[in-house]
Amino acid sequence: LVWLLVLSLAWLGPALGDEDKEEEVVEEEEKEKKEDEVLSDEIKEEDNVLVLHEHNFARALSEHQLLLVEFYAPWCGHCQQLAPAFAQAATELRNESSPARLGKVDATAQTALATEFGITSYPTLKLFRDGNRTHPLAYTGRLDSQGIVRWMQRRAGPSATLLQDTDTAATFVNSQDLVVVGFFKDLRGEAAQAFFEVAAEMVDMTFGVAEAAELFQAYGLSADTVCLFKKFDERQTNFPVDPSRGLDTAELTRLLRIHSLQLVMEFTNEVQPVPSPATVLQGPWLPCPHPPPPPQTSNQIFGAKIPHHMLLFLNKSSSDQLSLRDGFRAAAGGFRGEVLFVVVDVTGHGADVLPFFGMTPADAPTLRLVKMENNRKYQMEQDNFSDSGIRTFIQAVLDGKVKPHLLSAEPPEDWDARPVKVLVGKTFEQVAFDETKNVFVKFYAPWCPHCQAMAAAWEELAERYKDRKDIVIAEMDSTANELENITIHGFPTLHYFPAGPGRKMVEYKSTRDVETFSKFLDNGGTLPVEPPVSEVREQPPCPGQSPAPAG
Questions:
Q1: What is the homologous superfamily of the domain 421-523 according to CATH?
Q2: Looking at the UniProt record for this protein, which Gene Ontology cellular component terms does it annotate, in alphabetical order (predicted)?
Q3: Across residues 254-266, what is the average pLDDT?
């Protein structure tokens, strides 16, 4: 038996060795095949989205007149959320035989492309036109399939419909609630070209263009003019083109945004924000379950970027309160573009915003003015709902004659019983600006997940320093308390107020853990300089997320 076993091993040994060699050959061939695929300029597709890399990017540009490319990171949550909408948009454009195509680049793997096009956040979308890779256009549309399709369609075809006679013009003007028509003596002139640029960008509006003399006459025009036609408020608003200055695209965009709004808006569930590229837009006085990245909404109320909002809070089930809209509307005309007038029903969708103002439905009817730049709120000493009273109040705020109305909760009786001291608006200054104390304050929102995640670390930090007479660890609920000279833009925000004369303040922007907090405190409100770490390549952040966890 032993002898037979020896013979068997002798016979099978070479065969087993050959199998190992064959497996090695197969693995090597597969590796070479993958390398050849990467090096090839062949363009593969996933869900009608072109999969691009360094070796096929030039070919893609040469083969597609309009190519919108998403630079993404596989780990990026925003990119993962965008993927289905991006694929759907790619399919719609391909099905309609559009010259516009969509592609994607894994910027974490294709670092040369990421560097060439300055990719610093994900997702970043860029439009390449006519094979030009030196001046791609930044995507400015909404990040949903419909927004992407409409944005690409405007760039694939004419951005404005040519109106050739009075019948087609009348049909076009009456086709929708709001349309824009540019009347130009020369459609090849600079003013007309600027108009086409605006039309290509404002994909949520419908644009037409006219050159015929009979159309100038039909609409009472004698010179180049952009007209906004509406089925509400004033029916036609004209924006004449200045012969010396020409047509400024930014100014025209601003005017169209402002005048496309109703004179008095109503806050409903239809004015919710729509995702936009790289960031999401949210109105400062519009609450949300989680604070989004810095705003850029395309919804009507917040997208117009009007610097002040005048709000009338009322109960629409009350006929007496409904009648207050008349004086409110009468006051609105003189402030168009400077102040946006909004009616908020406290028993409807508007009930969600009441806590932001420290109000309940029982407080209606009442008025508030919000300065959008710093989110300051202003309140009349005694509500006056007449048009003259509203105009006088608004003008006084605009002239800086009215102090903001600041929210403050009542200080809890045991505010200093725990290691973490509880501050409110009324008590903030006497604690934070105590010249004998170094005060480290967390400004938070109760619903904020970032705040919840660091709560334990903040408690541990306070426990560590509870016996230090010169250090105070505190927190303030910024949804219920406001400060005159400190504006909180995101949660959590951490500020350090050092001891000594003067009202100094240092914002903490580093890692949120106990050890780093301790180094910051022990070093007098700054972090000690760490020795540089070589060969560490920082990953670009997702939109709205800073490299340091600022929340």
A1: Glutaredoxin (3.40.30.10)
A2: endoplasmic reticulum lumen
A3: 92
The rounded distance, in Å, linking the Cα atoms of 229 and 212 is: 18
User: Residue-wise over 137-163: b if at least 16 C-beta within 10 A, else e?
Assistant: eebbbbbbbebbbebbbbbeeebbbeb
Region 429-435: mean pLDDT is 95
C-alpha distances in Å from residue 16, one per residue of 4, 10, 59, 129, 160: 18, 11, 46, 58, 73
Least confident of 28-37, 204-213, 331-340, 442-451: 28-37
Contact 169, 217 (CB under 8 A): no
Q: Are 454 and 492 in contact (CB under 8 A)?
A: yes
> How many residues appear in the chain?
551
Residue 80 phi, psi (nearest 5): -65, -40
Would you place residue 550 in the very low, low, confident or very high pLDDT band (cuts 50, 70, 90)? very low
Running DSSP on this structure, what letter comes out for residue 231? S
Amino acid type, 121: S
**Where do the structural domains in the chain lie, given as residue ranges?**
44-154, 161-260, 297-399, 421-523
Could you give the CA distance from residue 71 to residue 122 in angstroms, rounded to a whole number?
7
pTM to 2 decimal places: 0.65
Statement: 297-399 belongs to CATH 3.40.30.10: yes
Task: Tell me the Ramachandran region of residue 487: left when phi exceeds 0, alpha when psi lies from -120 to 50, beta otherwise.
Answer: beta
Q: Whole-angstrom Cα distance, residue 293 to residue 116?
A: 26
- Residue 38 pairs with which residues in a beta bridge? none
Residues acting as catalytic residues: 76, 79, 448, 451
Of 544, 537, 547, nearest to 107 by C-alpha is 537
pLDDT higher than threshold 90 for residue 431: yes
3-class SS at 208? strand
Task: Give the per-residue pLDDT at 10.
Answer: 47
Question: 321, 364 in Cβ contact below 8 A?
Answer: yes
Helix then strand count (H, E) for the chain reads 16, 21
Lowest mean pLDDT among 24-33, 34-43, 469-478: 24-33
Classify residue 184 by its DSSP letter: -
Residue 268 has pLDDT above 60, yes or no: yes
How would you write 305-347 as a 3-class SS string? CCCEEEEEEECCCCHHHHCCHHHHHHHHHHHCCCEEEEEEECC
Q: Which CATH architecture has domain 44-154?
A: 3-Layer(aba) Sandwich (3.40)
- Locate the DSSP E strands across 353-470: 366-371, 376-378, 420-423, 438-444
Residue range 296-333, pLDDT digits in tens: 323 567 766 899 999 999 999 999 999 999 999 999 99
What the block records as the tokens of 23 is 């497996």
542 CB neighbour count, 10 Å cutoff: 19
Tell me: cis bond preceding 492? Omega within 30 of 0 counts.
yes
